[in-house]
Every structure is written in structure tokens, then in C-alpha cells.
Amino acid sequence: MKRKKLMAAAVASALAAAQMVMPVAAASGSGSVDVEVENTDTVLRVQVPTDLVVAVDEYEIAKDGSQISSAAFEMVNKSAVPVSVAVTSTATLGTGITLAATNEVDNTADEMWLAVAAQTAKDKYGVEKIGDLTSKSANVATFDATSKAAAQTFYLAEAGGTVVYNFVDVATAGDVGEGNSFGEYHALTAVTLNSGTEQTDLEAAIAAGDVYVVAQADSTVTKIEKGSSGVTHAATNDYYTAAAASTPLANIPVGKYIYAEMSTAAAAGGEAAFRYVGKLSTNKQNWSATDFSKIVIAYTINGLNSTAYTEAVAAKNVTYGLYTTPVAPSVPGYSGTPIAKTVAQDQEIRIPVDLGAGSLGFKSIKVVWKEKGTDLVASKIVTLDAATTEMVITAASVNSLLSQDDAAAAGSKLLPLTMEVFFNGNTTADAVITLNR
């Protein structure tokens, strides 16, 4: 359904969708935002920039370690409710340019690593310098090679204070001005005030519905509720009624509009920001905007009830606005059937581990030698490589197992060996791996 009133008490979801198109140049790029707001019964207003500088920085002129230079895209919630902002960025690449799955690009191909990095605190990204971010960083989303898109979701705390109404005079279709791009815009219709009967005409309009008073001097807006009395007409004001339904901001027509926002952003939790980072293959020289020409940012905004927002924050699934969906650790490829690994002399064994995310993410690991009941992590036969997120059995440990197996009598052989993996103190094995000669 469309919004029926500018203000009401109920909270709704599926509030907004928006899109920003950003050209990318060797020096800079900018773009505009198109926003369509649907289905809301409360004040919705998320402040975002209407342009953003993104640059190909092959020679790291910015000196931050990233070969994609980007300004921060900052969001401030000025809605009466907490909101989730799902952001999807889609890149346009030149012919022959491919995207790497990790920050380890293929220097024998025309490949680039492109990612979105969310701030972990005001103007901070959780690392000493931007170039230290990798595809494994918790606040980083890498662009997919096929879809050429990356997505993140932000949870922002509700704003407070009082409702403020703002007047916008759209002189050019589709352009609502800097900082005004995200909200519900209601078209205004001037109240007909005939010469000599202005007061009577104004009172009649107020009796029929809400009237918005716009001061000619500074465009300050005052809302007069339907049925109010004691309002005196002034020649220094303009008087309007507002359309019940908001106007989609994509190519919004020329005209006069109002939007509502709360007067005070949340002291904590109401802001978030992200930027773009990347690495370029040395196989190609003189990277330019032809190779990486545009980013389109699309949004979906939903209202959150206070309980959902509070629980997400309490569970530590929200870091400076960035929401992380809770996912438990796992061993990729395990679906109930043991994963078989071959043991060979002088060859280490590496088994990938997905550490999960959020409140359900990795906290601990225990690997048990099922036949003997031995904790292989405690005995340092199995270690976890934090850099690559892999379980590792070193070549030395492999050689030791083979030597012991060779020396064991028939019927007492060590191999095949069954390893049971337990994450986060679980009592049921999360994965089973067999080691065979």
C-alpha cells in the first residue's frame, strides 16, 4: 500500500528503494541519486550524499595502500524508527577486465580486486591503513566476478527530538538538491486565497485538512493540524496542502514539496559509512576509467521494530551500523559424509574452515582423534591458520603419523584415522574428516 498520511503512529516495513550512479575516472567521479519511497506510516528519512568521489589510483597517490581511491559514503538515520539499509553496489568494467575473488590478484591477467569496506567506528576501518584490508576482513564485501556486485546491510538507530518539516522547490526534474535525496517527498498544492477573503479561505482549508505554512523569508515550514483554530493569515507566508502519497524521486517533476525528518540524530548507532577499496594486477599498465567506469549503488530501506534492533545490537551483530548475519562456523564441503584426505610423506594437509560471522561466528575449535579420544589441537597436531582460515597438519606431524603407523603391529595401525571437528564448544561433531594412506 502507499502511505496514506504524512504522519501516523504505526511502523511499517519495505520503506524505500534508491539508486546512485557513480562514474569512475582516473581522478574522480560523481553521480546522482534516484529514490523511490513506498509503504510507510511513520517519518522516514536517511541522509546520504548525492555524489561520491571514486578514482582508479594505480600508483597509490592517496598513499593509503588501496589502488581504488574513494571518499566515504556516509549515512545518517533521521527516521522515527530504527531502519535497515541494504546496499548493493554493482560495477561496470571494461572489455577483458575480470574480478578477483580475493585480494590476491592474478598478475598474469587483467584482473582487479574490488570491494566495499564499512567503517568500524567514525572514520575508522579496523586497520592501521586502508591497504591492510583484505577479502577476509569482517567489514569487507568483495565484488562477485559474475554479478559484479557486492552487498552489505546496515542497522541504524532511530532519531529523536521532534518532527521537522522541510520545504524543497524542485527547479530541475529529478534534482532535489544536496543532502535531500532520501526521504518521502509530498507534492504541495497552494491553498486558494482570494483577495479580500484570505482569512476565511485559510480557515476553510484548515477545517478541511492539514495545512503547511511556508515562510517566504527562509522557507521554514509549520504544520497546522486539521481543525485548528486561532490561525491568522499573514502575507509573508505561503499556504499549502500536501498530497497523501509521496512522489517517487526517480525523475521527480518540477514543483514544490515537503519532507519530514526527526530533529535529532541518535547520539550513538544512527550513523554508518563505507568506501571502496581495491588492488590492480600488474599485468596491465595504465589502468583508467575505461577499465572501471561506473558503480551503481542500489538501496532497500526497511523499518525495524525496536526489539529487533536492540537484540541485534545486544548480540554484537552490529558494528558502527554494519549488520552481520549470524552464521555458525563450518567446514566447506562437509554434508554428513566424512571428508577424505590422503596422507603422504613430507606433505602438509590443509583443510579450509569457514569461521562464520556475527554472534554465531568462530570462538573455539576442538579436533578429536575419534579412535583414541585425543585432542589434536591441544596436542598441536592440528593448528588453525588464522591468516588463511585453514586447519593445518604440518609435514612434520604427517611424517610422525606415518612413522608411527609403519611401526604399529597389524590390527593396531593408526591409519585410517578419524578426526571429529567441534566448533564453539558443541557436543555434536560439526565435521568429520578421515586421514588415509
Q: How would you summarize what this structure contains?
A:
The chain has 437 residues and is mainly beta. It is 8% helix and 37% strand.
What does this protein structure show overall?
With 437 residues, the protein is mostly beta strands. 35% of the residues are buried. The protein starts with 15 loop residues before the first strand and ends with a strand. The strands form 6 sheets. It has a 7-stranded antiparallel sheet with strand order 2-1-19-7-11-21-20. A hairpin with a 5-residue loop joins strand 14 (211-215) and strand 15 (221-224). It contains 3 helices and 29 strands. The protein is elongated and about 115 Å long. Helices cover 8% and strands 37% of the residues.
Task: Please outline the helices and strands.
Layout: E1 16-23, E2 32-37, E3 46-47, E4 54-56, E5 68-70, E6 73-77, E7 83-93, E8 98-99, E9 111-118, E10 140-142, E11 149-156, E12 160-170, E13 186-190, H1 198-208, E14 211-215, E15 221-224, E16 237-242, E17 255-264, E18 271-280, E19 292-303, H2 306-314, E20 318-319, E21 322-323, E22 339-342, E23 349-352, E24 365-369, E25 374-375, E26 383-385, E27 390-393, H3 395-407, E28 417-423, E29 431-436
Parallel strand pairs: 8-9, 22-29
Antiparallel strand pairs: 1-2, 1-19, 3-6, 4-5, 6-18, 7-11, 7-19, 9-10, 9-18, 11-21, 12-17, 13-16, 13-17, 14-15, 14-16, 20-21, 23-27, 24-25, 24-28, 26-27, 28-29
